[in-house]
Amino acid sequence: MAGRFRWTPLLRLLLGLALVALLVRSVGLQNLRSALAPLNTHPGWIAAALALTYAALLAGVLRWHILLRTLGLPTPFSRTYRGFFIGQFFNAFLFGACGGDLARAVVAARDHPGKRTEAVTSVFLDRAIGLVVTLLAGCALLLPRLRDFAAFDATRPALLLMAAFLLAAVAFLSLFFTRDLFERLPFLQRLQHRGRLGPLLRRAYDAIFLFRQNARHLLGPGLLSLANLLLLAAASAALARALELDLPFRDLLAVFPVITVLAAIPLTPGSLGVRETLYIQLLAPFGIPPGPALMLSLLGYLAASFWSLYGALFLLRQPQSQPVNLG
C-alpha cells in the first residue's frame, strides 16, 4: 500500500502532462505560436497579472489567519504566511490541493501542539469556505447566461457538475447550520467515546460548530474568499489583455468561478491539463479559439507557480523536526 501511494503523485503528474500534450497536439503548435505572438509587447500586463495573483494569495493568507484566531489558535502572521505558501508549493508541484492542505495542517499542528485537531480543522474550514463562496458566486454569475451556455454541447457537462456541487453544498450547509449532530444522532453519541478517532471527531466538530453558533465569524473569511476569486479573475483578465484577446472582464468572470470549482477536483497536481480543458470549453461560447484559450490557462498556471516556488524557500529554510502526531 505504501509503495502504491509513493507512485501516486508521479502518476498524477504524468496524467496532467499527457492531457496538456493532447491539447497541444489538438490545437497545433503553429496556432499556439500565433497566440503567444503579442506577449512580448505587453510586459506591463504580465507584471500586473503576477501582482494580482500575489494579492489573491495574500487574501488567502488573511482568511486562514482569521480562522486560526477564531478557533483559539493565535498565530503570528509570519507563521501563517509561511505555512500558507508551503501549502501552495505542494499544491502546484507535488500532490495537488489535498497535499497542499496536508502540508498546511502539519505546519499548523506543529505550531499548536496542544490543539492539533483544531489546527487541522482550520485548514479544512479554510478550504471549505473558499470553495463554497466560489461555487455560490459562480452559480449566481452563470444564472443570467445559463441558456446561452446550455446551447453548447461542450459546456453542458460543466453546468451539470456545477448543479451537482451546488446541491451538495446546500446539503452540507443545512447540516452545518443544524443543531448539534452529536446530540441528534445516536451512533455519533457512541462514537465520540470510542478509541482515538471518536474524541478527535468530536473536537473537530466542536471547532466547526463554533461558526454555526456565531455565524458572524464567517463574514470576514467569506469576504476574503470573494476577494481571492475576484483578484484571480482579474489576473486572468490581465493575461488576456497581454494576449490581445477580445474577452471583456464580465465574460471571463462568468466562467472563471466554474473553472476554479471544477479544477479543485484533485486529479492532477495544480489541476494541470484539467484546467486547460475547461478554459477551452468554457471560453468557446465567447468566440475565443482553442489556441489562445489554452495559452491563457497555461500562463495563469505559470503565474501561480511563480508564487508557489516562493513557498519552496520557506520549506528549505524550516528546521528539521520529528513527524507530528495529529492527535
Describe this structure in words.
The protein is mainly alpha-helical and 327 residues long. It is 77% helix and 0% strand. The protein has helices at residues 2-27, 29-36, 43-70, 77-93, 96-111, 116-142, 146-150, 156-176, 181-184, 186-191, 197-213, 219-242, 249-263, 274-283, 290-317. The chain starts with a helix and ends in a 10-residue tail after the last helix.
Give a summary of the structure in a few sentences.
The protein contains 15 helices and no strands. It is an all-alpha fold. Helix 3 (43-70) crosses helix 4 (77-93), helix 5 packs antiparallel against helix 6 and helix 6 (116-142) packs across helix 11 (197-213).
Biggest beta-sheet profile: none
Question: What distance separates the N and C termini?
Answer: 23 Å
- SSE string: HHHHHHHHHHHHHHH
Question: Which quaternary structure do these chains form?
Answer: single chain
Outline the low-pLDDT stretches: 320-327
DSSP helix count? 15
Compute the number of strand runs.
0
Q: Which class best fits the helix and strand makeup? A: mainly alpha
Helix content: over 70%
Strand content: under 5%
Cα radius of gyration in angstroms: 21 Å
**Shape category:** globular
Averaged pLDDT, please?
83
Key terms:
single chain, 327 residues, mainly alpha, 0% strand, globular, disordered C terminus
